[in-house]
Amino acid sequence: MKRIHPGPTPIRAALLLVCALALIALPIWAAGAQDIERRPEQRFGVVEAYYRPADAIDLRVGWERMIFEWAKFQVGGPHEYSLSAVPEAWLAEAQQAGREVVGLLKNTPAWASESGMLGARPHGLHLPVDDPNNYWAAFVRQTVQHYGAVWDIHHWIIYNEPDIRPGEFPWYEFDGEVHDYFELLRVAYLAAQSVDPQARIYIAGMQWWGDVQAGRAPYLERLLALAAADPLAGQHDYYFDGVMVHVYFNTENVWNVLSHTRAILERFGQGHKPIWIDETNASPMADPDALLANAPYSITVGQQADFIVQAAALALAAGVERFAVYRLYDDNFQFGSSEPWGLVRPDGSRRPAFAAYQMVINTFGSTITAQRHVSSRSAMVVLEQPGRTAYVLWARQTAPVRFHVLAESTGETALLFGMTGTARSLAADYVPGFPESEPELEGWWFTVETPGAQIDRSGGVMVQGTPAVLVIGGPPRGVWVQVGGTEWELRE
Question: Taking Cα atoms as reference points, which of 32, 89, 64, 478 lies closest to residue 255?
Fold first, then answer.
């Protein structure tokens, strides 16, 4: 049977460019300062840390996503249940490291459907959840009960990218229609709750672009419309506890996809539910150690690092509860044909994105509230933290941007972090005649230069300019921006 590749393929990446530009043109629902649940040890994670557990410990990630593949637990029939489907060594290592495991349930066994495809709608889905012939319910119930009790796993994602339609793309993960996925979700929620009151069920991360390209309403919107029409949904919290988001390659789309997701949830009265990013990255197809033949993008290893910092900052500003990078390590890698995704290369060497993500975890982890401020050419995310403020600063377009953050005196110092994770002390300088439009503000400033973004071989800006992270004691301050001799205030 065909194994479905879990991340974007070269063809997928090429299609994403058109769809990404289309999504940028859609209306944006702005978000202000967001209160963020303060669990820094759990906020940042990776997909499949078990391949490189020592690297995961060095990153200090608080969680990882593992696949619990139904087809491997019950290969021959409903009376089988093989715990070897998820090696206990992986679970024990994660537990010892203090890393929470989040389970992704997917892939119907061949015996449980008519087609025998991994993404098929299973038999018995319409039956009551306590009926043994509702095979999906029985599997979910047994899995949630065992792994909750033995391994303290209580977060479960239901399938992956079900919005990809067979025939529209060269791959897909779920063979059914949206009403079939609703049944999967509903049954999983009821089955999980019947055995574990702590269980939390999450809607799968969506691919998004197929709906944009086809002119359809977003899958999440159509899914929630089905829940709204279910007379029992209100009694069961719409059959889900949160939503996963997938977003790749394009800095601008991180904010756009999150904004659209939140708006859809609010439209159905579910805006209070958490959003997690469980997959994000910009594949460094221009890495000399992992060049991809006919790559649609020319993203460098440095730009991969830039994207992860930008995505993490924007996610916090959008109120995302948890964030994970796809993926830690490039396993089963074939040079010239496999897409490079890992923070760690196949040979075990670390890409620059590893250090950048390490800096994110160490520097962003204590954030209490976050707010995004943008102009047409500059972006800033302000992270308020206990006793200090972090400013994540970058250029959105090709022109470099100079940021000026107000200082209290000439003797004040701050820490300036680069993408390598190293920090240097930055002293405030007196800037005569600045700002020209507000002479009463003339005084001491922290000045940070950020380079412009690079035009990708695809013809547009995919990853915006390299960020700088400035950390200063105390609450947020005024920030001014200079681009090409023009200056303006980015925030009060």
Answer: 32
Tokens of 439: 């002479």
Q: What is the pLDDT of residue 41?
A: 55
Element housing 24 (H / E): helix 10-24
User: With 70 as the cut, is the pLDDT of residue 36 above it?
Assistant: no
Q: What's the half-sphere exposure (Cβ side, CA atoms, 13 Å) at 278? A: 31
Are the CB atoms for 182 and 219 separated by under 8 Å? no
| Per-residue pLDDT at 458 exceeds 70 | yes
Q: Considering only CA atoms, which of 315, 306, 240, 318 is closest in space to residue 279?
A: 315
188 Cα distance to chain centroid = 23
For residues 284 and 290, the answer to whether their CB atoms sit within 8 Å is yes
**Torsion angle, CA of 404/419/380/313, rounded to 10 degrees?**
-150
378-385 and 388-395 strand pairing: antiparallel
- From the number of C-beta atoms within 10 Å of its C-beta (0-12, 13-18, 19+), residue 230 rates as middle
Question: Among 3.20.20.80, 3.40.50.620, 3.10.20.70, 3.10.120.10, what is the CATH number of 10-366?
Answer: 3.20.20.80
* Virtual torsion, Cα 125, 131, 132, 134, nearest 10 deg: 0
59 pLDDT exceeds 70? yes
Structure letter (DSSP) for residue 234: G
Residues in the chain: 492
Residue 71 has pLDDT above 70, yes or no: yes
Instruction: Assign 100 to helix, strand or coil.
Output: strand
- Residue 483's beta-bridge partner residues? 486
Record the pTM. 0.91
Helical spans, DSSP H, in 168-241: 178-195, 209-214, 219-229
Mean pLDDT computed over 201-207: 95
pLDDT for 276-316, tens place per residue? 999 999 999 999 988 888 888 999 999 999 999 999 999 99
Distance CA 136, CA 114 (A): 14
User: What 3-state class would DSSP assign to 258?
Assistant: helix
pLDDT at 409: 84
Phi, psi for 150 (deg, rounded to 5): -90, -40
d(CA 376, CA 359): 27
Residue 371 tokens read as 């707010």
Q: Given a cut of 80, is residue 88 above it in pLDDT? A: yes
Give percent helix, percent strand, percent coil of the chain, each to the nearest 5. Answer: 30, 25, 45
Fold for the domain defined by 374-491: Immunoglobulin-like (2.60.40)
